[in-house]
Write a structure and sequence with these properties.
The complex is a heterodimer of chains A (235) and B (577). Chain A has 235 residues and is an alpha+beta fold. Chain A has helices at residues 12-43, 60-92, 208-234; strands spanning 100-107, 110-115, 128-131, 133-137, 141-148, 153-157, 162-166, 172-177, 182-188, 201-206. Chain A contains three helices and ten strands, in the order H-H-E-E-E-E-E-E-E-E-E-E-H. Chain A has a five-stranded mixed beta sheet. In chain A, a hairpin with a 4-residue loop joins strand 6 and strand 7 (162-166). Chain B has 577 residues and is mainly alpha-helical. The chains are: A alpha+beta (235), B mainly alpha (577).
Chain lengths: 235, 577
């Protein structure tokens, strides 16, 4: 499917696989059903000298024409459920051990990404904060901790095939592992107010070296900006 | 039985004493179900114009952001959210329900079951005027300071819970009041539908002889009655949160935003079927008549619809897979959701089987019925993608969802609604509509509807979020912008394409050919009385001898067999009753 954007996460391929499975199954049904409908309409147009067949579908023999296809639909449904269920569990069932942790705070109308900083602890003075830019190293499990300052937002990174609503009052986990370096979009997919459309962020997947460099550069800046932030809040 | 005859006797005498009615009692505060049906119809058509105009504003903004919308002006971001909110609210609650339940249900249930009027005519009038009040409250919200509601038609808390978050104060309060009044109106209507269909049926009209339209209306009414209660409670809680500062949905006061979503979707999903089922009902009335064949598998269809109605109560959380609810809930809800495709598949297959070896005439009502069925199938199959929790992680909240639900609701509400209007117009107004204009209207509607929403499936696949004021705000969406332009141009032509209908509808009322009693040679009871039917509907209440779909009965004298005619009357040797 060239319509789906490039996938850059370890589980995105699984979602794309279930998507394709459903596409092929329902695609065949859709074409068969529309084709039959169109054929009947053309084939049985009213003609003089031919009248309709009295056939009311009240016997099991006739109903087999409906029930057997419906039974096949049922079996295919269960197959789709089974295929999707394991993919869901993999992505949302519980994160694997993570090497990178990022706290994500969504608010009207931007994203605030916080890293623990050199001491490895959140809530300390050396925390690193980045506005609207989520930097992560390639091929490492990243764990996000999602919170909201005001209304419901939704973290959506199309290339990761990751979406998770962020509900105020709750702390919601999410995880991913990116497989290709580059910059990718982050969007908010839950209506959050007049600036909803502008709540765009960027996911920057970097090599471990570049990521470490970015963290280092940012930690000095961030401490300064955190201080001014605190000072601003105190006023 | 004796009681029923007695009740009809009373109804009959009341009708006779009402002959000399003033203008107000006759046209405004009428208690005649046919007049009330026309009131619902007028209201829904008026609201459809408002709803259609909001669609135009939305589409223009998406195709050509930061330009002035022709005939309106610039749309601002908060104004855009308000327009999107009102579009959804108006189309679902003030167009679909008044048309499919209010107008068709009111007009058809008494006529189709052979009753003189609704069981509770005054309650019927009261439910319409409650809806009218609700509509006025909703329209008034456009003019209050801060503008109308802007938290989406789903009104998710806490965005909707606290005026600070949207800048809309009275707009959302009025929205809640309007929606709550609308619910009250259809609760009263539903009680009336159910009572009429169960208690007022003519002699011989057993449950298994009721037309499918009646079945669909009463199943829709039951589904509505059972699902709306929690949301009425939710609406009161939301209003209290906003006005006196209770904290039902506010996390900083101990409330839970997800509670609103559960209450909303516990109603919201069944609501889809409340509006879709009567649309299917219309298609199922029209298809046998224009194929001259019985509907295929009448009892199977009724049973499937009841099954779908029951299942609709345990699928709501598929709207909430990524909402933050416990992820272990996703798989059970995914299974129930995908399973609901089985009863719907049975219905669709039965409709297709009805056409097999029929004698199909493509008059306007049939064109809309077939076009509706063909379009609905795409809405049905795309629901499987969204019902799969894993795929929904990607597709949730994108234009794929928008395209999907428009493909389920537009075919049932508008194709079904137009099929019904073209089909029953002669009975409602006593005049025939123009066939050529009807066919032009169908072609424009069918082609343009598909041209609007197929591109939107594709933008959804590209990851385009819904409810976005400017898709150009995202660099990655620039390649799909041409699809938005196509969808917008198609929307404009789709809206202009409704003018042949409006002209046809209005002019035929005065200039159309006089409609005979039974212009389509149909079986159901509404066609066995005058067009339009007199007060009390039938000169004598008919006796029912057969099911509603006896077309092309072997050895009969003609290819239709009205429900009120015995075997002897249709030319068969009487072999019993």
């Amino acid at each position: 499917m060239r319509w789906l954007p490039q996938n850059v996460s370890t589980f995105g391929g699984d979602i794309d696989w279930v998507f394709r499975l459903i596409l092929y199954i329902v695609g065949v049904w859709f074409i068969l059903a529309e084709g039959t409908l169109l054929y009947f309409v053309l084939r049985y147009r009213r003609k003089s000298g031919r009248s309709a067949l009295f056939n009311d579908g009240e016997t099991w023999r006739e109903l087999a024409w409906v029930f057997i296809p419906a039974l096949i639909v049922l079996v295919l449904d269960l197959g789709i459920d089974a295929a999707g269920g394991s993919v869901w569990d993999k992505i949302k069932g519980g994160p694997p051990p993570a090497t990178v942790e990022v706290q994500v705070k969504a608010k009207q109308f931007n994203w605030e990404f916080t890293y623990a900083g050199p001491d490895g602890k959140f809530g300390t003075a050396d925390d690193i904060t980045s506005e609207n830019e989520l930097h992560v190293p390639i091929n490492q499990v990243v764990r996000l901790t999602l919170t909201s300052a005001d209304v419901i937002h939704s973290f959506f990174a199309p290339n990761l095939r990751l979406k998770q609503d962020i509900v105020p009052g709750r702390t919601i986990p999410a995880w991913f592992e990116a497989t290709a370096t580059g910059s990718y979009p982050i969007a908010c997919t839950e209506l959050c107010g007049f600036g909803h459309y502008s709540m765009a962020g960027t996911l920057v997947v970097q090599s471990p070296q570049d990521y470490a460099r970015w963290l280092k550069e940012h930690s000095t800046q961030s401490t300064a900006s955190a201080d001014t932030d605190r000072a601003r809040r105190a006023n | 039985m004796a009681e029923q005859v007695h009740a009809q006797g009373i109804a009959g005498s009341q009708i006779e004493s009402h002959h000399e009615l003033g203008f107000l009692r006759r046209y405004i505060f009428s208690v005649d179900h046919k007049t009330i049906a026309k009131q619902y119809l007028s209201l829904s058509l008026f609201m459809a114009i408002v709803g259609g105009f909001t669609a135009y504003l939305i589409r223009w903004q998406l195709a050509w952001p930061e330009t002035s919308v022709a005939g309106w002006g610039y749309v601002e971001p908060d104004g855009y959210n308000a327009i999107v909110t009102m579009h959804g609210t108006i189309m679902v609650f003030f167009v679909a329900m008044p048309m499919l339940l209010g107008a068709f249900g009111n007009f058809l249930i008494p006529l189709m079951v052979g009753a003189g009027d609704m069981a509770f005519p005054r309650l019927n009038a009261f439910s319409f005027w409650t809806l009218f009040t609700a509509s006025m409250v909703l329209l008034a919200s456009f003019f209050v300071p801060g503008g109308p509601a802007a938290a989406g038609w789903t009104s998710y808390a806490p965005l909707s819970d606290n005026p600070l978050y949207t800048g809309v104060n009275w707009g959302i309060n009025l929205w809640i009041i309007a929606v709550a009044l609308e619910f009250a109106s259809f609760l009263m209507g539903g009680v009336n539908f159910l009572t009429t269909a169960l208690n007022m049926r003519a002699r011989g009209m057993t449950l298994w002889r009721m037309p499918l339209m009646v079945w669909m209306e009463i199943i829709a009414a039951v589904v509505f009655l059972l699902s709306v209660g929690p949301l009425v409670a939710g609406a009161v809680m939301l209003l209290l949160d906003r006005t006196i500062g209770t904290g039902f949905f506010a996390p900083d006061r101990g409330g839970d935003p997800l509670l609103w979503q559960h209450l909303f979707w516990f109603f919201g999903h069944p609501e889809v079927y409340v509006v879709a089922l009567p649309g299917f009902g219309v298609m199922m009335e029209v298809m046998p008549v224009f194929s001259r064949k019985p509907i295929f598998g009448y009892r199977t269809i009724v049973t499937s619809v009841i099954a779908a109605g029951l299942l609709s109560f345990i699928v709501w959380a598929h709207h909430m897979f990524v909402s933050g609810m416990d992820p272990r809930l996703a798989t059970p809800f995914s299974i129930t959701t995908i399973l609901i495709s089985v009863p719907f598949a049975i219905m669709v297959f039965a409709m297709i089987a009805t056409l097999w070896r029929g004698s199909i005439s493509l008059k306007t009502p049939m064109l809309f019925a077939l076009g509706g069925l063909a379009s609905f199938m795409l809405g049905g199959v795309t629901g499987i993608f969204l019902g799969s929790a894993a795929v929904d992680i990607y597709l949730h909240g994108t234009y794929f969802v928008v395209a999907h639900f428009h493909y389920t609701l537009f075919p049932t509400v508008f194709f079904g609604g137009f099929a019904g209007l073209y089909y029953w117009y002669p009975k409602m107004f006593g005049r025939m509509m123009n066939e050529t204009l009807g066919q032009i209207h169908f072609v424009l509607t069918f082609v343009c509807f598909n041209a609007v929403f197929i591109p939107l499936f594709l933008t959804g696949l590209a990851g385009n979020p819904r409810r976005i004021y400017e898709t150009t705000a995202y660099e990655f969406l620039k390649p799909v912008q041409p699809l938005h332009v196509i969808a917008t141009i198609a929307t404009i032509v789709l809206l202009l394409g409704q003018f042949p209908f409006i002209a046809n509808f209005v002019v035929s009322m005065f200039r159309g050919a006089r409609a005979p009693q039974n212009p389509w040679q149909a079986n159901t009871l509404e066609w066995q009385t005058d067009s339009p039917p007199p007060h009390g509907n039938f000169r004598t209440i008919p006796v029912v001898f057969r099911g509603p779909y006896d077309y092309t009965v072997p050895a009969a004298a003609q290819d239709w067999a009205p429900q009120s005619q015995s075997d002897r009357e249709i030319g068969l040797a009487a072999a019993g009753g």
